[in-house]
Amino acid sequence: MDLGIAGKTAIVCAASKGLGKACAVSLARNGVTLVINARTKETLEATAEEIRKSTGVKVTAIAGDVTTDAGREALLKACPAPDILINNAGGPPPGDFHDWGREQWIGAVESNMLTPILLIKAVIDGMVARKFGRIVNITSSAVKAPIDVLGLSNGARSGLTGFVAGLARAPGFANSNVTVNNVLPGAFDTDRFRGVLAGQAKKSGKPAQELFEARMKHIPAGRPGEPNEFGEFCAFVCSQQAAYITGQNLLIDGGAYPGTY
Ligand code: NAP
User: Fold this and answer.
1) What is the pTM of this model?
2) Which ligand 1 atom is nearest residue 141's CA?
3) What per-residue confidence (pLDDT) applies to 88?
């Protein structure tokens, strides 16, 4: 399917690895010019070069922490008028809420709520003026079905979700061909997924493989998702064909969420 987005430009945040990288790759395969970001310059440059070589599109790498004003300013300076914005950042650490104080909560809200909101604010009016915009926030299945040890994520991402639900439907956006959606990953085989498993293994004294197999029993697909499955779906949400999808929370989890709706 031709997604009709060749020649568009995208900012993809937190995109040197994992789900952000997969979204960048899928957009590039569809001819989208990229500005990608992550904190570690070497990994980011390597990813940019890999995408340039495999797709031939222009990729600009802007190293920096997207959760800071300086990181966001650098991204927007490199790409002040994106057609597509993919919001992403590292997820908050797992833990027990008794151990989290104001600092931990502010950190989670900064990363997983305020950062995407501030980037949306910076680019959405330009999208309206140009009559095309696609904004995708990578959130988590934890927004729909909270995960006890991920309280920081459950809370901060729910704030973003509530904001987006109102914004996407506010006058002037959807009727200007500007959509705003959240894509909610379940278990995807990335460094973060493996890192969380390793942390749980250390804490519980159980082998990581045993914990992995136990988790897979709760996923009807019987496996974690591949990042490219996430990236391809994200590219579709950014397509011309997806113009009538907005304000949605799109779960991609191998059937793990047990509800009918
Ligand atoms: P990942 O494989 O660890 O990749 C994270 C990427 O984000 C890396 O490129 C990392 O590069 C970059 N990054 C992290 N913090 C950043 C920051 N402050 N500024 C700029 N770049 C930053 O993680 P992932 O699995 O793709 O997860 C992506 C998001 O989806 C996270 O918020 C995660 O919580 C959420 N999620 C993932 C899963 C899953 O199963 N994988 C499930 C639910 C939700 P640097 O470290 O160099 O900055």
Assistant:
1) 0.98
2) 43
3) 98
